[in-house]
From TrEMBL:
GO molecular function, a single term: 4-hydroxy-tetrahydrodipicolinate synthase activity
Stated family: Belongs to the DapA family.
Family annotation (SMART domains): DHDPS
Keyword match Mitochondrion: no
Keyword Lyase: yes
Record organism: Prauserella flavalba
Keywords: Lyase, Schiff base
Lineage: Bacteria, Bacillati, Actinomycetota, Actinomycetes, Pseudonocardiales
Pfam family, one: DHDPS
InterPro entries for the chain: Aldolase_TIM, DapA-like, Schiff_base-form_aldolases_CS
Protein name (Swiss-Prot/TrEMBL): Dihydrodipicolinate synthase family protein
Length: 293
């Protein structure tokens, strides 16, 4: 007999930004990736951490947003507008809205130390510019140096109109604390790809998953199994998802390596990153072969 079922998790593929061998934006390869993902995931998370957003200029980010909207449809795109300056985040928001984007994510300020007042003003400027579009805060304390406690985020959501949050790193580790602190209508995603089952059972909306950009099927199967309450199918899908994490390491360079081996773009990183070695290459090759339809 199936166990109690839960709502099906929303899987947003945190897509990498694909470059050519010279490090220039390869728009055709990015479009090919968006098309390949198709309905294998529930949407695309564009120009986030996996997308190397700090290394993209404004025009490149908007070009990616346009390509994603044209390929997947506006309602299936979450476009990241986080930037080091509020001015740049607002400009990205305005230009994305002009393309039809209706869902936005915004990282907290980063690099310079900030207090909660600065975080609130930053988010408020973005939500004001966004109007009736949905804006989700993005908390990643290891990358930004900014820690926002669950109760503080609940207050920020109320005062600024944030519709949800993507929680990564240490924030994702406290997913249940955020869920308890926030009203039910505030949607929450975890950046911990393989934690999908726990996220759903804790009342979350789903995951923002870089790994699913390279291997969507294990995560879709896991979402289906949890929603159906099928414990055997969940164990099998969880093992597949764990194998993806073990091979790719959860890094943009690992994800790009896997896509290259599937003939989707080059594995060029614009941001400095460790090189993948022969052992990683071989492990990813075995996974590509195992997951091939």
């Amino acid at each position: 007999m199936p166990e109690s079922s839960f709502p099906r998790a929303e899987i947003l593929a945190a897509v990498p930004t694909l470059f050519d061998e010279r490090g220039e934006l390869d728009l055709a390869a990015n479009i090919r990736l968006y098309r390949a993902l198709g309905d294998r995931v529930d949407g695309l998370f564009v120009a986030g951490t996996t997308g190397e957003f700090p290394a993209l200029d404004h025009g490149e980010r908007i070009a990616l947003a346009r390509a994603a909207v044209d390929t997947a449809g506006a309602n299936r795109v979450v476009f990241h507008v986080g930037a080091a300056s509020t001015r740049d985040s607002v400009r990205l928001t305005e230009d994305a809205l002009a393309l039809g984007v209706r869902r936005l994510a915004a990282l907290t300020p980063y690099y310079l130390p900030v207090d909660l007042g600065a975080v609130e003003r930053h988010f408020a400027a973005i939500t004001t510019a966004a109007g009736d579009a949905h804006v989700y805060g993005y908390l990643f304390p290891e990358r930004t140096g900014v820690v926002v406690e669950p109760a503080d985020y609940a207050r920020l959501s109320e005062t600024t109109g944030l519709a949800g949050a993507k929680l990564s790193g240490a924030a994702a580790d406290r997913f249940s604390d955020f869920r308890r602190a926030l009203p039910e209508h505030v949607r929450l995603w975890s950046g911990a790809d393989t934690a999908l089952a726990g996220v759903v059972r804790a009342g979350g909306t789903g995951i923002v998953s870089g790994l699913s950009a390279a291997f969507a099927e294990p995560f879709a199967a896991l979402a289906d199994a949890v929603a159906d309450g099928d414990a055997d199918a969940e164990r099998a899908a969880q093992a597949r998802a764990d194998a993806v994490l073990a091979a790719l390491g959860g890094s943009p360079e690992g994800i790009k390596n896997a896509l290259r081996q599937q003939e989707i773009g080059a594995d060029t990183m614009r941001m400095p990153a460790p090189l993948t070695g022969p052992g990683t290459d071989a492990a990813i090759a075995r996974l590509v072969a195992a997951e091939r339809p």
